[in-house]
Amino acid sequence: MTEKAKKKKLLRVVAYPGTNTNGYTCSSMRFSVLAIKDGKRKQIMPAYTCREQFCNGIRNLRDGEADFERTRLLIIQDPNDFATFRDKLFTGKRMINAYEREAGWTPLSKITTVKHSEYKNAWLLTGPGEWMKVPQLMSTITFFLRLASVYGPFEADTVTQAEATMKRLLKESKEGKFQSKTSDLVSFLPHIWDSLKLVICKHKKIFGNVKPSEAWYSDGSTGFGFASGILNFVTNKPDYSKQVIAARRRFEELRKKI
Fold it and tell me: How would you class 214 by CB atoms within 10 Å of its CB: exposed for 0-12, middle for 13-18, buried for 19 or more?
């Protein structure tokens, strides 16, 4: 096989049963989760644009379907300008890697172009299992990717750079410099940007004794998707799991010491 042929060979992903694009494009970023089954990379749930629905989808997976020791995040989007979008997507990866390095997580996340059996443009982010073990961190990694996909490329090779960039985006948003203001910029970023380092880098102290079955659990009394996200964790008191409630108290105690 020639070197050129090797470069063109992409990892194949089998679509979730029932997936059919019907010729429509995915103008917004969508997320799903993969698992290795029968030697194949298979999408194990539908793809969602909404982070709350996405996390709810993970919660609804049957026991044993998801691998909580490894993050295999499927990213889907049909961009108008492929080259520009790719720069933005990999800006998001650099931002993620910056926090992973700061937290000491390994291996660092990487993004690979894949050949999906239904979607035209798809990528696979493979990374450490910490992102997958609690919905608050899964909400965070998808936040990084969506923020970069709209407002990137920007500097984010270190946590210091990433925080400076987020502060700049907030300032420019207030000054009216963006024609498009997403919920990530308006509703999430102002409330969470200065807590992300704490949540990620002190994850063992905050979530150390919380099992995935407890973190992804809901008794149905509240809307799990919103209640389990990073915004609700930082600004409110999630009430869907007693273990997560205890983790929120530990987070608040650590935040007071900063």
Answer: middle
The residue type at 182: T
Q: Which amino acid is at 77?
A: Q
Report CA-CA distances (Å) from 96 to 31, 62, 139: 16, 28, 12
Residue extents of the structural domains in the chain: 10-256
Q: What is the DSSP string of 138-151?
A: HHHHHHHHHHHHHH
Among 3-17, 174-188, 207-221, the range of highest mean pLDDT: 174-188
Determine contact, residues 200/102, Cβ cutoff 8 Å: yes
95 DSSP 8-state letter: H
d(CA 19, CA 25): 13
Q: What are the start-end ranges of the H helices in the chain?
A: 3-8, 51-59, 82-103, 130-133, 135-151, 159-174, 183, 189-192, 196-201, 203-207, 212-215, 224-227, 230-235, 242-256
**pTM (2 d.p.):** 0.93
Residue 213 amino acid letter: S
Task: Confirm if 81 and 121 have CB atoms less than 8 A apart.
Answer: no
Closest CA to 76 of 19, 127, 132, 128: 19
| Element containing residue 127 per DSSP (H, E) | strand 122-128
